[in-house]
Amino acid sequence: MTILDKITAYKRSEVAAKKEAIPVRLLEKFPLFAKETKSLAAALRNSTTGIIAEHKRRSPSKAVINDKVLMHEVVSGYESAGAKGISVLTDSNFFGGSLDDLLVAEKTVSIPMLRKEFIIDPYQIYEAKAYGADAILLIAACLSAEELKQYSHLAKSLKLDVLLEVHNLEELQKSMLPNVAMIGVNNRNLKNFKVSIDISKKLSQEIPTDFVKISESGISDVETIKELRTYGFEGFLIGENFMKTEKPGETAKQFIENLR
Ligand SMILES: O=P(O)(O)OC[C@@H](O)[C@@H](O)c1c[nH]c2ccccc12
């Protein structure tokens, strides 16, 4: 069993319990459900930096990254550093995040927010909307072609941008869908945690230009971004490199200054 299998199995029981506690018809009544969303894809297109800065307390690959900093300080730091979007991990069991983190971020920043979650059920898409997200992540490794189609259609109808994450050509082939705005290449293999930027470079040629191309994970220097831009990437998702420091916002600021 890979870690991804473990996570998705856990998610299925978690979502079943949540559906009982707060059914979709109640989620639809949450005040934030009616909020007008902002497009993350539009914020990244032709941006000079393209940074999506992530809040991540811990991860299965690294254990604790940072559990001392305050959520609102991290995200306000990211916003003033010039990030174009914020990614908030909402999984609690493996990443130490929560939907409350999303609420705090929503109150704190005005740039688009991505709900970073292992989505295996449409319920979680309604939930993202109810807790103030502007965009959701769909992971091709967790979903069938049919599910990807249905889930991206639902997200679009709720005005949430979709970032569809792939790690190889086979996954990419089922991901080039009309309701998907952004395709993200995860440099980290979620089955064994190996990281290689070459995956982004290799897959970049296969991604049509109508998708905003995003490179995710394992990015820790400005040179890598400059290089990835030559492959057509416009968005860069960075977590650990910022979160592992005492002041993630400050670290992001210095990083982004060197990019301009
Ligand atoms: O911390 P990093 O190496 O900068 O990576 C950030 C982000 O790409 C990573 O957290 C991530 C990418 N895809 C995911 C899917 C689920 C959980 C986490 C992720």
3D architecture notes:
Keywords: Amino-acid biosynthesis, Aromatic amino acid biosynthesis, Decarboxylase, Lyase, Tryptophan biosynthesis. GO terms for molecular function: indole-3-glycerol-phosphate synthase activity; phosphoribosylanthranilate isomerase activity. It catalyses: 1-(2-carboxyphenylamino)-1-deoxy-D-ribulose 5-phosphate + H(+) = (1S,2R)-1-C-(indol-3-yl)glycerol 3-phosphate + CO2 + H2O. This protein has 260 residues and is α/β, with parallel strands linked by helices. The protein has a single domain, classed as TIM Barrel. Helices cover 40% and strands 17% of the residues. It has an eight-stranded parallel beta barrel with strand order 1-4-5-6-7-8-9-10, surrounded by five helices. The longest helix has 19 residues, at 3-21. The chain starts with a helix and ends with a helix. The chain binds indole-3-glycerol phosphate. Indole-3-glycerol phosphate (IGP) is lined by residues 54, 56, 116, 139, 165, 186, 216-219, 237-241.
